[in-house]
Amino acid sequence: MDALILVDIQNDFMPGGALPVPDGDAVVAAANALIPGFGLVVATQDWHPSDHGSFAVNHEGYEVGDVIDLVGEQQILWPAHCVQGTPGASFHSALDVAGIDHVTRKGTDPGVDSYSAFFDNAHRRSTGLEDFLRARDVGRVVICGLATDYCVKFTALDAVDLGLDVTVLVSGCRAVNIAPGDGDRALDEMRDAGCRLVRTLLT
Ligand code: VGL
Ligand code: ZN
After folding, report:
1. What are the Cα distances from residue 19, in Å, to 141, 142, 160?
2. Considering the domain boundaries, does residue 69 fall inside one?
3. Residue among 147, 141, 191, 148 nearest 163 (CA)
4. What is the residue range of 189's domain?
5. Atom 6 of ligand 1, nearest CA residue
């Protein structure tokens, strides 16, 4: 069985959102076009409590972009985003949510971030997505969404580590690009790790 994994297609990652990904809304049409071709569609939501440790506002004297240590991991501090239950955490209103079979929420533990849909950044706790996919005999996943250089990348790398066959639809991803080229370097990392990178699924 093949599964489509739609990563963090949420309002706060759209232009005008709290943590905007340039051209982030371009992934919505790509996702909607893919959904009907899959028997199983999983969508992730970044789903933080307001006291989350990845928010600069929760660390006195620190600013967005500073890097701190969070449970032994390097943590970039972000603007507050995707706070549980807020409009910013909702899926983009044009996303075909009726086509989504399962939602995985991540980043719920205030003490550790979770870029990957599978594990927190310290690799201590599973989100349950691995078990969900295994129970449905998923061997292959296609991944797209936001952002190429964070949640898409770590989701794809974990999926490869778990032994899944991973395809990343590059045209359905956009990068934050805090440093120019971060998105392209993330794609290189995914390719080097064994992900197949494609620009269309139609070839
Ligand atoms: C993400 C930064 C912080 C992402 C989530 O979805 O790529 N990036 N939280
Ligand atoms: Zn986040």
Report:
1. 26, 24, 27
2. no
3. 141
4. 2-49+81-198
5. 151
59 in a structural domain = no
Confidence check: pLDDT of 195 > 50:
yes
- Ligand 1 close to Cβ of residue 47 (< 6 A): no
Q: Does some domain include residue 137?
A: yes
Residue whose CA lies nearest to ligand 1 atom number 8: 150
Q: Would you say residue 71 lies in a domain?
A: no
CA of 37 to the centre of ligand 1 (A): 26
pLDDT at 119 over 50: yes
As a whole number of Å, the end-to-end CA separation of the chain is 20
Strand partners, 91: 10
Q: Is 146 in the pocket of ligand 1 (CB under 6 A)?
A: yes
Specify the CATH number for the domain of residue 129: 3.40.50.850
What tens digit of pLDDT does each residue of 55-78 get? 999 999 999 999 999 989 899 999
Q: What is the pLDDT of residue 202?
A: 64
Number of domains in the chain: 1
Q: Is the pLDDT of residue 150 over 60?
A: yes
Residue 76: nearest ligand to its CA? 1
Distance from residue 131's CA to the centre of ligand 1 (Å) = 23
